[in-house]
Design brief:
Layout: E1 24-27, E2 32-35, H1 41-44, H2 47-53, E3 59-62, E4 67-70, H3 74-78, H4 81-90, E5 99-100, E6 107-110, E7 115-118, H5 122-126, H6 129-148, E8 154-157, E9 161-165, H7 167-172, E10 174-182, E11 189-196, E12 209-214, E13 226-232, E14 238-250, E15 255-267, H8 270-276, E16 295-297, H9 321-328, H10 333-343, H11 354-373, E17 378-381, E18 383-386, E19 389-393, E20 409-414, E21 421-430, E22 434-438, E23 452-456, H12 461-470, H13 477-480, H14 501-504, H15 507-517, E24 526-529, H16 536-550, E25 556-560, H17 563-573, E26 582-584, H18 616-621, E27 624-628, E28 639-642, H19 654-658, H20 665-670, E29 685-687, E30 690-691, H21 696-706, E31 712-713, H22 717-720, E32 736-740, E33 745-748, E34 751-756, H23 757-772, E35 783-786, H24 790-800, E36 808-810, H25 812-815, E37 820-826, H26 839-843, H27 849-856, E38 859-867, H28 869-872, H29 876-887, E39 891-892, H30 910-931
Parallel strand pairs: 9-15, 16-21, 24-28, 24-29, 25-27, 26-27, 30-31, 32-38, 32-39, 35-36, 35-37, 37-38
Antiparallel strand pairs: 1-2, 3-4, 3-5, 6-7, 8-10, 10-13, 11-14, 12-13, 14-15, 17-23, 18-19, 19-22, 20-21, 20-23, 21-22, 33-34
Helix pairs in contact: 6-30, 11-12, 15-16, 16-17, 23-24
Length: 953
């Protein structure tokens, strides 16, 4: 075994990932121990590992100066005046190799931790947990090295790594012989015991490996070698390991010794794995800071930029210089956070301070968004030219990475120039993989061979509109901080006859419509709290139609967070409303090819053909205007529809999230007393409780966890029962499956986004079976695949190309508000790191409760989740959900690694308990090896890469 010894200068490790006993992982430089294999790349890229292998936290001794030097300061020391003076005095070369630190009168060198501590602190350090951990590791490493050696004239030979094993072959089973040989003719050693580590761990588990035939107590000599047969049998794809421990006895010395071997196998189709393997080894992209542009030559904006005649000019609202400097300094995020709270945010969050609070949060978010855009900057790019346009090919454009719209700005500079002068190119043409730009007339000298540097700039129009709104004098408590005194009494004066007959039998929907219609002018915002599949859109559309009927003079502005959601509302309102009554407002940059046919008569265009708005006089005559939120303004009465338990706004800045920008307006209001769903039903809020989407088994867990069990399953039986009794279900009456896959998460090239080939291929297998089953016919349009990482979405689309090219694959955000007959989810993560990363970093997006809620509530009749239970089980929410599935009989694959009947501690630090169990296993292994040995044993910012970009149209 290799223990992380081949370290490159950048801190990366070139050895096979450190593994030993099937229950633990180890890194020699850090003395790091984790539970179970699954390749812990995170640790190898963690701060602790990098600092350790580069020597920054070690103490070195300079033999020229006779002093101890901190490892991080070694290079500086070697060029210092003191070092030069000492070398000159001793007449030796300046170049000197660092030696281990030495103890002095005031310092004691710790050979275990490899740094010095103050002598008065030595007792505390030597008894500290960190040193004890490293001591245990050294003991374990010594025992492990000893166990893996051939010894006492005995050698063990044979295949221990099967590599790729075809699923069919693995299911049938494999047998392999290990040969035990001796170089001595007398045959004094015998095998007395053979055992697998999987059965000696704290919680025994099935690894797929087994002992089939063992020759015990037979002398092993040079003339008579002995054999041992072990087998591997596994029904499920994934990566499997175990450790075989062979206990021998020297019959002459009457002493026992151990020789161990690591057994490995990957169950899967090798050709399919090869097709999805990393295109290049992952190398973290160095984050560089852009040098400021000293001069930007303005480009030519597209005609759409003037298609809308705005009444008032937008403010520039640039980030204040002092705030910008604070955000760009090198201090930790927590220190920046403290200064921002102290210097920029108001002490009290009130209507009067509301604008100041959010102005600063918007600037903080803008700064992070601009920094994230730097990831997509290009060097050495070429431009092609056609007429007045210069075309730039952009990798990832079709995936909105980066997100580019008509009217956006892209800066271009000749690569050889290397100055602060850049040319601004406005996007005029948007294609799948390239954009067409127009520059100032002074942009000359272009040629096809010339290389350019490219910078993507943030489109600040939406931000400027937000700042414009905050600059207004609006400070009404009834809207921003509503209280009971602001809520007027509701008088029900009209009898409601629903347009949609389905609403008539739904009491909560009827209550919401009645309350909205009978709200008096100037009341508090009314909330329609709509959990998944409860008919929020139907309710709002019905309320709009009733308002138009009961109040002929009312004017309604209907807003949605995305164009697709706004289109749904507008399409349903076309029934009964003419083009003179309904106006669907689009951004000028939007393509007319994306507009639903039903809405083509409900838009307005400028003379040059771009979307626009009519005159103010005509605009006021429309009874309903439908737009996205960025085009909206606050009116007399506000009705909010949504679910604070589902996804909130996309916020890229960690500082802004901590300071509250991620909490939506609706979520903040629902935290106030007057929106208590039990006490204020029909007055300020209505909670919709009938779910028309999912089977009861799919709905049960999120219903109890997020909605107090209030939701009733009311979907059509013909839809939700469509997959019952299918061969995909372990329990034919329970349409929820968790398929445990012990895979490997990976990254490639410079992308920090994770993917998992084993999970992708398991998803592919399920979809192939779904489509081939004639009894339970399923089309591509019936299936949705959710993955939290962009790289996994790409791998899944590649894998499905030959099987089901029409299946939608996307992030959780792309599925909010939608449902599918069948939903499959790949959770991706299969590595654990317990040193520098907390649970949130280890699981990433997977551990977000709102993402969890959305992902498990999209399915109508079948929900299949593929993931690694050892990782998911670290999170109490996922642990509870996996318990629910296991106890209901929906588990497939290697068994659950804990007792599913045990209560889950909602605040449980399960990562710590797993780490503690790993140490128990390590200590037990060390103890066994020391007892069974002939001699004494001798004494290791990329969070936003998968966060989607907001739809800014």
């Amino acid at each position: 075994m290799k223990l992380c010894r081949n370290i490159l200068s950048n801190g990366a490790c070139t050895t096979p990932f450190c593994r030993f006993d099937h229950t633990v992982l180890a890194c020699e430089p850090c003395g790091y121990i984790a539970e179970r294999p699954y390749l812990y790349q995170n640790h190898l890229k963690s701060k602790e590992h990098l600092v350790t292998v580069t020597g920054e936290n070690q103490t070195f001794f300079c033999s020229i100066c006779d002093i101890n030097v901190n490892g991080g300061d070694w290079k500086v020391h070697c060029t210092s005046l003191q070092h030069r003076t000492s070398a000159t005095a001793k007449r030796v070369s300046l170049n000197v190799e660092p030696e281990h630190g030495v103890s002095t009168d005031s310092e004691t060198y710790c050979p275990v931790c490899r740094f010095t501590v103050k002598t008065w602190f030595w007792n505390r350090h030597s008894n500290g947990e960190d040193r004890q951990r490293k001591e245990r590791f050294l003991q374990f490493r010594a025992a492990l090295d000893e166990a893996e050696k051939d010894k006492n004239a005995i050698t063990v030979e044979g295949v221990t790594d099967f590599g790729f094993v075809a699923p069919k072959t693995a299911k049938q089973g494999l047998l392999c012989d290990l040969i035990m040989k001796s170089s001595e003719p007398s045959g004094r050693s015998v095998l007395i015991e053979a055992r697998l580590a999987s059965q000696k761990a704290t919680r025994p588990y099935g690894s797929g490996f087994s002992l089939e035939a063992v020759a015990y107590n037979e002398p092993i000599s040079s003339a008579e070698p002995r054999s041992l047969t072990y087998g591997f049998e596994q029904k499920y794809i994934g990566r499997y390991e175990d450790r075989l421990e062979l206990v021998f006895e020297d019959t002459q010395l009457k002493k026992r010794f151990v020789i161990s071997r690591l057994l490995r196998a990957i169950v899967g189709n090798q050709a399919e794995h090869e097709a999805l393997r990393p295109i290049a080894p992952y190398v973290p992209r160095k984050r560089t800071t852009r040098t400021p542009e000293s001069q930007v030559v303005p480009g030519v904006p597209p005609p759409s930029s003037t298609a809308v005649p705005y009444v008032s000019k937008l403010p520039f609202a640039d980030i204040p210089v002092n705030l910008y400097n604070l955000l760009t300094d090198s201090r930790s995020q927590m220190k920046k956070l403290a200064d921002i709270k102290k210097l920029y945010l108001p002490g009290l969050f009130l209507s009067q301070t509301y604008a100041r609070q959010f102005e600063n949060l918007l600037w903080i978010e803008e700064h992070q968004t601009e920094a994230d855009l730097e990831r997509y900057d290009m060097t050495g790019a070429r431009l092609s030219k056609w007429n007045q346009y210069y075309y730039l090919a952009i990798p990832g454009l079709a995936e909105k990475r980066p997100s580019v719209l008509v009217g956006d700005r892209i800066l271009v500079q000749v690569q050889s120039e290397r100055s602060g002068r850049w040319f601004e190119g406005h996007v005029h043409v948007l294609r799948q993989n390239e954009v067409g730009l127009r520059f100032h007339t002074t942009f000359t000298g272009w040629s096809e061979s010339k290389l350019y540097d490219i910078r993507f700039k943030l489109n600040r129009i939406v931000l400027r509109r937000q700042h414009q709104a905050l600059d207004s004098a609006f400070e009404e408590d009834r809207v921003l901080f509503p209280e009971a005194r602001h809520a007027g009494a509701i008088e029900y004066t009209w009898k409601i006859a629903p347009y949609n007959p389905l609403i008539a039998s739904n009491e909560c929907q009827m209550d919401a419509v009645k309350s909205i219609v009978h709200q008096g002018p100037g009341g508090v915002p009314f909330i329609v709290f709509g959990p998944p599949g409860t008919g929020k859109t139907i309710t709002i559309v019905e309320a709009i139609r009733q308002l138009l009927k009961m109040k002929p003079n009312c004017r309604i502005l209907a807003c949605a967070p995305s164009n697709s959601a706004a289109d749904i509302i507008a399409e349903r309102l076309t029934v009964g409303l003419t083009a003179n009554e309904l106006f669907r407002m689009y951004a000028p940059s939007r393509s007319k090819a994306d507009i639903p046919d039903k809405l083509r008569d409900y838009v307005h265009s400028s003379p040059d053909g771009h979307f626009s708005v009519p005159s103010m006089g005509r605009l006021k005559n429309f009874r309903v205007v439908v737009a996205t939120c960025v085009s909206a303004a606050i009116s007399t009465n506000i009705v909010l529809s949504g679910d604070p338990k589902q996804l909130g706004p996309i916020v890229r800045s960690g500082i802004a999230r901590r300071l509250g920008l991620e909490m939506s307006y609706l979520e903040r209001l629902m935290g106030r007393d007057i929106y208590d769903v039990k006490k204020a039903h029909g007055k300020t809020v209505v909670k919709l409780t009938k779910n028309f989407r999912s089977h009861a088994a799919i709905l049960k867990f999120p219903n109890e966890r997020f909605y107090a069990g209030d939701l009733d399953q009311c979907a059509k039986p013909s839809v939700i029962n469509a997959c019952l009794s299918s061969p995909f279900l372990p329990d034919t009456d329970f349409p929820v499956v968790f398929h445990a896959v012990l895979g490997k998460d990976d990254r490639e090239a410079s992308s920090p986004s994770f993917f998992n080939i084993d999970e992708a291929l398991q998803i592919k297998s399920y979809i192939r079976q779904l489509k081939e089953n004639r009894k339970f016919r399923t089309t591509d349009r019936d299936i949705g695949v959710i993955a939290p990482y962009h790289a996994q979405c790409l791998k899944l689309r590649t894998a499905l190309r030959s099987v089901a090219d029409g299946v939608k694959v996307g992030s959780v955000e792309e599925f909010q508000g939608q449902g599918r007959k069948v939903i499959l989810t790949s959770t991706v993560r299969s590595s654990k790191d317990f040193v520098d990363y907390d649970l949130r970093h280890t699981l990433g997006f997977v551990a977000n409760p709102r993402r969890f809620n959305v992902s498990v509530t999209r399915a109508q009749s079948l929900l299949i989740i593929v993931g690694n239970p050892h990782v998911l089980g670290l999170d109490p929410l996922w642990r509870s959900f996996l318990n629910y599935i296991h106890l209901k009989g929906g588990w497939v694959g290697p068994d659950i690694p804990w007792d599913s009947s045990e209560a889950v501690d909602a605040q449980g630090a399960y990562d710590k308990s797993v780490r503690d169990q790993a140490h128990v296993d390590v200590n037990e292994f060390t103890r066994r090896m020391e007892e069974l040995t002939l001699g004494q044993a001798d004494e290791e910012n990329d969070a936003n890469v998968d966060r989607p970009w907001r739809d800014v149209e």
